[in-house]
């Protein structure tokens, strides 16, 4: 009874977030047909019970990643997703890309790390007032370089190694990132509308990927799963037992 109630509550939340709106039938990828419930005003409607099932699989996977302290890279390049992806990633201290995906972010991560390091170095030097030795024009050029580095790599500053998972809003749009993840063996979770190929990633979530409310809902659910995974891992970690003092250390009165 309780499980049924929780199921209905989640479906209601999905409906309220607008997750049920797909695209017109003419835009639908054949692989998405099993997830379509019907049509309303020429717009196809997702079966939210099936969406819920796929979300649960993604949530369980994210929790397992968190339990091993792995990182999830959040990616949302289109306008509707940028703020939601950035805010959600920051809430759990995860790396993010809320703009254009830079080719090689995963496949050439050694070079990306150099860019991140340069950003950190220049930012630290500026904060400590160490740029005073440069001319006004040189400082202006350095400030511009810092802004450019922040724009492209600022969200990746907490990423020291390849992530254990990639969360993508609209896999079709972010096909370059998906190809890199596949090449590097990084599992992908993707919020994908009906124009996407359901088989393009390991953890697809068929739902509206074009509205701010829907994107924010799913990103938040995954962030909550990450936090829960960390808490569960911490709670189940074996307690550190202090060794008993050696006989020679025991003072005899």
Question: Care to describe what's here?
Answer:
- Helix content is 47%, strand content 11%.
- It has a five-stranded parallel β-sheet, sandwiched between helices.
- A hairpin with a 2-residue loop joins strand 1 (36-40) and strand 2.
- It has helices at 2-16, 48-67, 79-91, 109-127, 136-153, 175-184, 212-236, and strands at 36-40, 43-46, 72-75, 96-97, 165-169, 188-192, 203-206.
- The protein has 253 residues and is α/β, with parallel strands linked by helices.
- Helix 2 crosses helix 7 (212-236) and helix 3 (79-91) packs parallel to helix 7.
- It contains seven helices and seven strands, in the order αββαβαβααβαββα.
- It folds into two domains: 2-102 and 162-232, Rossmann fold (3-Layer(aba) Sandwich), CATH 3.40.50.10490; 107-158, Helix Hairpins.
């Amino acid at each position: 009874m309780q499980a049924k109630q929780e199921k209905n509550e989640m479906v209601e939340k999905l409906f309220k977030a607008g997750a049920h709106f797909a695209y017109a039938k003419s835009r639908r990828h054949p692989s998405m047909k099993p997830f379509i419930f019907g049509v309303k005003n020429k717009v196809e409607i997702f079966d939210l019970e099936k969406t819920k099932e796929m979300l649960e699989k993604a949530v369980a996977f994210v929790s397992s990643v968190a339990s091993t302290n792995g990182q999830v890279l959040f990616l949302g390049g289109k306008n509707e997703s940028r703020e939601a992806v950035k805010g959600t990633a920051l809430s759990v201290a995860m790396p993010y890309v809320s703009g254009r995906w830079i080719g090689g972010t995963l496949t050439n991560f050694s070079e990306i790390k150099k860019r991140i390091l340069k950003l950190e170095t220049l930012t630290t030097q500026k904060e400590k007032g160490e740029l005073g030795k440069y001319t006004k024009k040189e400082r202006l050029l350095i400030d511009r370089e810092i802004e450019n580095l922040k724009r492209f790599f600022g969200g990746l500053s907490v990423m020291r190694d390849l992530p254990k998972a990639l969360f993508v809003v609209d896999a079709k749009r972010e096909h370059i990132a998906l190809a890199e993840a596949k090449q590097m063996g990084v599992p992908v979770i993707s919020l994908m509308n009906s124009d996407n190929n359901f088989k393009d990633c390991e953890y697809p979530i068929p739902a509206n990927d074009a509205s701010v409310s829907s994107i924010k809902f799913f990103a938040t659910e995954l962030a909550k799963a990450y936090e829960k995974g960390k808490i569960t891992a911490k709670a189940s970690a074996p307690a550190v037992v202090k060794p008993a003092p050696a006989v020679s250390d025991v003072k005899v009165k």
